[in-house]
Every structure is written in C-alpha cells, then in structure tokens.
Amino acid sequence: MKVAIGCDHGGLHLKEEIKALLLTLGHEVEDFGTYSTESCDYPDIAVPVSRAVVDGQAERGILICGTGIGIGIAANKIDGIRAALCHDTFSAHASREHNDANVLTLGERVIGVGLAKDIVTIWMATEFEGGRHERRVEKIMTLEK
Ligand code: RB5
Fold first, then answer.
1. What is this structure's pTM?
2. Rg of the chain's alpha carbons, rounded to an integer?
3. Closest residue (by CA) to atom 10 of ligand 1?
4. Which of 36, 61, 111, 123 is a plausible cystine mate for 53, CB 3.0–4.6 Å?
5. Whether 46 contacts 57, CB under 8 Å
6. Ligand 1 centroid distance, CA of 71 (Å)
7. Within the chain, what is the greatest distance between any pair of CA atoms?
8. Element (H, E) at 73
9. Cis peptide preceding 105, ω within 30 of 0
10. pLDDT tens sequence across 83-136
C-alpha cells in the first residue's frame, strides 16, 4: 500500500521508526517531513499528508506529533479525512474496522516505539467492515457538505 507519512519536531524519532517498519512490511512510503528536530507547526505537515490521501496519491496517512492530538485535529479539518488517534491496539483495529480511518495519528511523547509499531502493523492490516458501519461513516462524511 502507498502510505503518506509526516510529523512535527515532536514526532521525528517515531516517524523514522514507523517508516522503517512500513518498508519492512512491504509498503511504499512518501515522507512529507519534517526532517529535523527544528521546531515547526504540525498543521503545515498535516495538510499535505491529508491532501495526498484525499487526492489518491496515497491510500493511507500516518501523522505523528508529541501527543498525536494537534496533528489529528488539523487533519480532520480536511474534507475526506477520518483521522484516528490510537494509542492501543484495540482502537487501531476498531478505527479501521468500524470507522474506516484513513489517517492514523500517534504521539511520540505518549507511547513507546514497540507499542507504536504494533499499532501501525494492526492498523495497516485491518480492513473496513462495511455494513452498518458504512451508514455511520457516510453520515459523518455528509457533515462536510
Ligand atoms: C509540540 O511541542 C507539540 O505541541 C506538538 O507536537 C503536539 O503534541 C501538539 O498537539
């Protein structure tokens, strides 16, 4: 799968770990930065990653900041994005199966690398269940119109 990835300075280290994992899992990764620990603003990264997903340049997006919160709030402002902050494997699974989340957000300052990798592995491997969940997701997407 093609994955757009991005982070602010608070998520740089975890982004590198997740990038390596995605490549190991056989995915293609486009990195939208940031590329250094110099302070930057997470909306500036959330927007291009989200647009890449909405435009079909990438099938999924992964965004990382210190908490995963700010970058996710920004991503969810872009029409077509369903960004989910997941710091446990159950939520990672459910966000795909029930919510068809197309962006995963993570907080480098909140969880360890091992758990983050498990979350990403599950999130990438889980399909949307459809059915009753489809109707609910459609109702969310209608809110954008
Ligand atoms: C940056 O210091 C920090 O505010 C950011 O990474 C993120 O946690 C915001 O939600």
1. 0.98
2. 14
3. 70
4. 61
5. no
6. 8
7. 45
8. helix 69-75
9. no
10. 999 999 999 999 999 999 999 999 999 999 999 999 999 999 999 999 999 999
